[in-house]
Structures are given as C-alpha cells and as structure tokens.
Request: fold
Amino acid sequence: MTDSNRDEDLGLDDPDRLPWLETADGYEYEESASPLKVAGLVLAGLALLAAIVGGIYWIQRNQSGGASGNGELIAAQEGDYKVAPADREGKNFEGEGDAAFAASEGKKVEVSIDPAKAKAAAQAPQQAPAAAPVKAGSAPAGSGFVQLGAFSDSAKADQAWAAMGKRFGFLSGLNRRIAEGAAEGGRKVYRLQAVTANPAAAQQLCAKLKAAGENCMVVK
Reply:
C-alpha cells in the first residue's frame, strides 16, 4: 500500500478534516471482567483451598489413629498439698550456734574442746620427713638415677629438690643423690639426681617429668 492510498483510507487528503478532534465512536473496547465473574473465581479458589486443608487433616487423623483419651480431668490428691515444716528454722547440726556472731561483736565466748577428738588428732600420723641424701657410690646395687639439674653448690641442689617435691608429689619417698663433679674451667658442679629402684623405673620417672614440662635425663 502506498502513502497516497493510506491517506485516502484515513481521509487525510481532506484539508478541512481534523481527525485528531473527531470522536472515536467506531473504536471497539475490550470487555472488562464483571464483578460477578471475579467473585465467582474467588469463591472457587477458597473452596479449593478448603478442600486441600480438609484432605490433609483427614489423612493425618487416620494415620495417627485419632485422639486418645476420654478428656476427663485429673483428680487432685486429698488433703493439703503444701505442708509447713515442723522446724521453721531448718535443720540444726551439732556444733552450730551463735558463737561466731557473738565473737564478731567482741563478746567473750566459752569454747569447749572434745578430749576424744583432740587425742585422735594428736595420734594422727605425722608427715614423713624428707629422705636423706644418698652419697655418691653408696646407692644400692641396680639402682637407677634421674638427673634433674646441675648447681654451683649443694645447698642450691637441696633447695631445688625441695621445690620439685612440692611440685611433683610422685617424688615423695624417693631418695636423692648429689654427685659432685667438675665442669669446664675447673669449677665444681653438684648434680641433683633422683634415685630409683632400677633403671627401668628411672626411665618411667624421667618420662613422667618430661610430660609435666620438666627437663631430666637418665644417668648411671
């Protein structure tokens, strides 16, 4: 179709015609959905949703076998369910009293000592004294030795042994040996050594000390 034919169809060749001011009576509009149709679609959707929910509820109820029980209330026990204690101050123990409070206020308090308990405490075994040092060459045959350090004098070696005995309880009961020797430059050193029953026990003791973070070495 040429431009001239299109102008003739639209009537644009008429100089007295103003098509943009003319009404659009001949234009066909699309028909919009009616309110009744929209309401029907909404009701149909709600009915479908209700059917789905009802079906799920019915399936779950049949699978679980339905609710069990008759819905009766549990009867409460007869009598009072809260009973006040006979002693409202709580339980008293032997030896308790107001002595501590009175002493804190500056009052004199008479204190009695049970003679039986005092005698039992006096007869309790006392802590065994520290083992005496073993002189070099006087240890029993077959003993093992774990060297714990070297010091400039024997007093420092004894102090180190006492400190290690407090840190490691498994050293209690063991003898110690302070072996005198010479270091580089001709100065004397005193080597602190723990004495064990045999070399195997010395290996075990040194391994335990190393596991605890202490340096040591097994010597002869």
Remarks:
- The longest helix spans residues 35-64.
- The first strand starts at residue 144 and ends at 151.
- The chain has a mean pLDDT of 75.
